[in-house]
User: Fold this.
Amino acid sequence: MKTFLLFLVFLSAPVVAFGQSIPLPPDVDTAIASTVNFEGTVTQGVTDLVSSVAPSILPLGWTLLALFGVYALLQTLLQGTLRSMAMHHYNPLATTVAYVAVLFRIAIASLMLTFYMTPLPGLPFNFHQMFPYLAQALANAVTTDLLKQTLGNFNDVIHYLPPVGVLQVLPALLTIVVLTLTALSQVAMTIITAGSYAIVGILTICGPLMIPFYVLPGHDKKFWSWFDNMFAYSMYVFVGAAFIFIFCHSYADFFTNLHGYTVGQWLVSVPYLLLITVVFLWTMFKVPEITHMLFGGFGGVASGFANSLQALAIRGIALAIG
Assistant:
């Protein structure tokens, strides 16, 4: 029995030692501000990446567009020639219509590259900013006041944790648990949206290489896949902001009912804080699945719409020529 008690004392010694060294550093506010601003630093990094790398990739995009455009026109000419040789009553207008279809796609791709880094006429954003701008506008509709209040409450919790003295294991354990749950909550508020910003940044610098595929017959799926992912990952910001808004209500209710920062109050309140944080983390990691379920496949819809416009334009030109 004595051996067992000595073993328990040995195990609790690191905890007690941690409890004795738990006083917060004087620059804790700066540390908290840096954690909260993590999303802002990621956004700034993505902005710097796009502004420095994308302009150097655009010339390669124009080169690919020229090569793919020539290839598509030659393929159309070859297919028209083979059909005219194989058919006795071949209508030359069919080749003209096919040429017009290719030229229509080349014109659209040229416009996308032209306004890739240049604002669209009459609009405050360029082509690659179109979906992030829309997602941010929707996210801004979700008020951030409650989020700021919740982060302020987290700040208060860190400053007013139960005091820890010598051999006071329970307050030390409560401090560890509360700090861990607070950190996990802040991670949940930033990791998904910050990750989506980074992915959108990578997709943005790949855009000039994907746009030329729009003119290649049978290979335009690469462009529409890129287009679809740009839209879906941009919407992470909106869906994440909506979930954060919902769970900030739960955190606000928790802090409202937290009438003090004593050990007894924390013993009663920590299970509820744990429940909120675990559900919040699980929900936030469901954001990618839910976002793709809601907004995935947009590229296919846009592809069908673009093909309809192309067919309508070609039919009008064919009627005018005929």
